[in-house]
Protein 1
Amino acid sequence: MDDAPPPIAIGSSGRLSAQPLTNAVGDHALLIRQAEAPRALLTGERGTDRERVVLVPMDDDVELRVDGDALAVWLAHGSVSAATASVPGWASVLGMALVVAVIGLAILGGITFFGWVLRLVA
């Protein structure tokens, strides 16, 4: 009987899963797989003052992000794009009309202002 914990679904589609692993000497890791194909292995390595996180890609479609924004992008992705809402057509047309009106008024105001300035200077 295998006492391995059940895999944890990860990713937006849930097709990826993380399976906790423990080897004979007690080291722990996570095996990330899609269907039955392994994709990456996440483990730790002993360091001097703290453990080093080690990610081992197992295929060409594993993206490694080393920038500080990777966590922020992941966190914001859920809060910004959690619900897919469609904008009604009338709202798009009204918004475009307002943008065109503001640009038109800005052009008309610029022409009027510079017309007054040129009359005062001349």
Protein 2
Amino acid sequence: MIDRAVPDRGSIFRLHVGTALLASGQAWPASIRDTWSIGGTAPATVRMREYPLEKAVSDYIGAMPFLWLAVDDPPGPKSERSVIEVGSIALLSNLHRAQIDAPS
């Protein structure tokens, strides 16, 4: 049984926000840095150790303005929701190009 008190590792957006927080200069313990983003699942002990970062990710995302779109199709790599997620991340990414807006 999965403990829902600790978020699962299935969100690419949470992964990116957490990775950015780890790179922000705040002193995160090595015990969190060493396991963050590794694998799609993790034992409860690892997830509990990562909880402070998961909470910081939730707080950061919770402060963001959002636009909700109703996308009524089953999840999958070719789904409309996948296309929206990939496109949204691409719009915010500076991968392989000069930075337009440096991370803050």
Protein 3
Amino acid sequence: MKRQGLTDSKWTRAEDYLGAMARKRTFRRRWRIRDRTEPESPQLLLSTIPFLALIGLLGVLAVAIMVIAIPRSRPLPKSAVVVEKQLGVAPKGWFQKAEREFHH
């Protein structure tokens, strides 16, 4: 028996295996009964109810934020206390004394 003959055979190359597997798979797919991906009638629990629950939750959240934002009581404005200006009298030489203290 020749060793060379075994390696040259049609079924020993990877490309041949892959091609046969691909042909077999496409043949099976073509004749398989296809399942529906969508139900025949829309199911209320899977489509509408979660959407309505989300909209309701957002509505409740919006109302809660509006209620919290309303100020409960406002503080009364303070009456302005007018302070009368008083003219003061400083002893002579106060400015020179302050300059000396500042420079030391």
